[in-house]
Amino acid sequence: MDSLQINTGVIKIPITRDDEAVGDFIFNPNDSVTRERFFLLFKNLDEKKIELEHKDQEIRRDKTLSKTEMIEKLNHLDIESANMIREQIDLLFGENTSQKVFGDYRVLRVPKGVRTPFEQFIYSVLPYFNAATKSKIEKYTNKRPKRVKK
Question: From CA 88, how far away is CA 34, in angstroms rounded?
Fold first, then answer.
């Protein structure tokens, strides 16, 4: 019996976290809905980063807080923000994607010039979505449709 072979453009990328292979990340940048949601996620994360920076500054300026209270509030802000990012990633790419990619880590504060694990993830898959978007645009703007001979 013949089988039906369908290629939907799924990409499979091995995940290496801290030099340890932990599985594969599987996604389809060619799917229009996934692509749209990814770029919305990208925008939302940029907005969340700005919001986080503003809240961070507010906490640091609050002179009524002791040093310990300030650290506790900043830590709570980080956990809340990281959990939101993980939820957004899981909504887009499937349940437990964040756990597979990041493990139990919720790292938002890194030295200047270093990307957080969340940013590393986004910027690692971004080229696949950009390429898929570019090919769709070229398909509809640069090429003439092929005529079918009768």
Answer: 12
Instruction: Label residue 135 by pLDDT band (50, 70, 90).
Output: confident
Place of tokens 């990328």: 13
* Average pLDDT of the chain, as a whole number: 89
For the residues of 50-74, what is the DSSP string, one character each? HHHHHHHHHHHH-TTS-HHHHHHHH
| Assigned domain for 107 exists | yes
Tally the domains of the chain: 1
40 Rama class: left (phi>0) / alpha (psi -120 to 50) / beta: alpha
- Its pTM surpasses 0.70: yes
- The domain in which residue 99 lies consists of 32-120
Give me the pLDDT at residue 146, please: 56
d(CA 116, CA 105): 11
